[in-house]
Amino acid sequence: MTTTEKNKANILTDRFGRIHDYLRISLTDNCNFRCSYCMPDLDHEFTPHEKLMTAGEIRAIAEEFVRLGVNKIRLTGGEPLIRKDFPEILSLLAPLNAELLISTNGFLLDRHLPDLLKAGIRTVNISLDSLRPEVFFKVTGQDKFERVWKNIHLMLDHGLRVKINVVAIKGIIEEEVLDFIDLTRDLPLHVRFIEFMPFTGNHWAGDQVVTASQLLEIAMERYDVVKLLDEPHATARKYMAIGHKGSFAFITTMSNQFCHECNRLRITAEGKLKNCLFGKDEIPLLELLRSGRDLHASIQESLQLKHKELGGQFDRDFKKVNPDAIANRSMISIGG
Ligand code: SAM
Ligand code: SF4
Ligand code: SF4
Known about the structure:
Blueprint: H1 3-9, E1 22-26, H2 55-67, E2 72-76, H3 86-93, E3 99-104, H4 109-118, E4 123-127, H5 133-140, H6 145-157, E5 161-167, H7 173-186, E6 190-194, H8 212-222, E7 225-227, E8 236-241, E9 247-251, E10 264-267, E11 272-274, E12 282-284, H9 285-290, H10 296-305
S-adenosylmethionine is lined by residues 31, 37-38, 76-77, 79, 103-105, 127, 165, 167, 194, 196-197, 199, 202, 331-332, 336.
């Protein structure tokens, strides 16, 4: 790396010396699923079309971040694949000098497979909270397990790396954790169990959190488990059952935070920059872009506001967290 390249890579540094090179862009706050832990049941008002970033605006904002050192961009939502102009967005972002990734509920993946391959996407994160169609229906509000399952296989058949995101829902996960790990025996899947997190309107309570250590204990009763090396800045702590083709991991946002190595920034579907998943500070990047203003200074301002951990909003001990005291958005309007 040349000195200029190194300086560029360090531009997005916050007060705690954390370099930010990973951007998550939400394409919409709408979704074809209705997962209870994500979408508040109070009448969720979707952002009107004209307030969403257009494909060209997404490209312009992403380009600025890449210029400032971002080398990884994840498209998320809501459900990113429901955007009619998803192929156009992909084709505008693909030429940027950053790895492009996607998080999806998987339902529309078959329709977009050619676009994904053309854009050079190699890894797909797919949400799947249950392997039982009737439970899947209860969690997502949609009777669509079979198609998501078929699409997971379709991705594997086309050589894509597939990560399965499973929210650890109390009363479900204890029954299914072993079934999920069982999947990794013959399939090269990477299953990630995510601890249940508090967001506006999602009825979070500390006693509903099933922790990584509780799940690991269940796993170790059946399998010989080894710890794998975690990539730098990875939010997931990786494991493997000996002899399996795939792996499993835990995202321990509630029980063992990883904020000290945070490298991520987020943009909501209406173009607000959030410096933390749980932060309340938001910078209206899209408004600035539309009024012809320079984005760099505002991005820096947002970074300087970033708190050391958890958006400065709650205690590391999740049992002490009062969800009503957290000023944030619903998960569906943040973008995961
Ligand atoms: N619709 C896509 C999907 O479901 O993958 C992308 C957006 S979704 C908001 C991104 C991720 O956030 C999903 O894996 C979802 O399961 C996870 N998620 C949503 N609400 C959550 C919560 N309260 N706690 C933990 N994970 C959550
Ligand atoms: Fe939709 Fe994903 Fe949220 Fe479920 S988790 S409601 S699929 S955005
Ligand atoms: Fe980063 Fe905020 Fe998540 Fe911590 S809680 S890892 S600071 S985004």
